[in-house]
Amino acid sequence: MRSRPPIIGIPCDHRMVGKHPFHMVGEKYITAVRDGAGAVPMLIPVLSPPVAAADLIASVDGFLFTGSPSNVAPKHYAGRAPREGVLQDERRDDTTLPLLKAAIAAGKPTLCVCRGFQELNVAFGGTLHQHVEEVPGRSDHREDKDADLEQQYAPVHSISIAPGCLLADIVGAGVFQVNSLHSQGIDRLAPSLYADATAPDGQIEAVSMPSAKGFVLGVQWHPEWRWEESELSRAIFSSFGEALREQRS
Question: What is the pTM of this model?
């Protein structure tokens, strides 16, 4: 009898569509989980109060924390109040921040992308720049919102992957090109995280957790976008899938 494929839990964003609240995840993440990691995606609602982390951990084999137009609320890292018009999603924060700690403590393979990358840093005690483009010495990492998706998700800067880290184990140390669609970014790195990759301006672009019992990788860019066309993206999702299957064996 063929064993079932691993199940990956994906926490949703909480959005109003007209007058109704919806829980949603971008299709690109769902597709990358199914086709890139060879897993079954399961969407996790961000209810109030949240679904118990222990129940979620018992139901899935690993987690993907996705990107989002919303920012992590700065109150979670003692940051300044957000500017007017900056989208927040505290329903998501209330689910993801405790869930990240519980999932990693349980040894569940965990991949974090963009907002998820920032959530990972905040959950373990790090802080964020709310507007990287305004930090002296940093570049503007935002996309052109008036451009089409092809331009927004095109590779725009390099990253340098350090030797001896998880990401180097996955794809090798060296220089790779990535897309960039963010304003928030890591300021102070959480003590338990390791900077696997940086941009030319010094901004941290990937992290891992050497002390974790299972696979933990966070990336600031979007490997889910046309994942099959990028060596780096293919390697990330393939390694995530392998970690899920090893965890179940």
Answer: 0.97
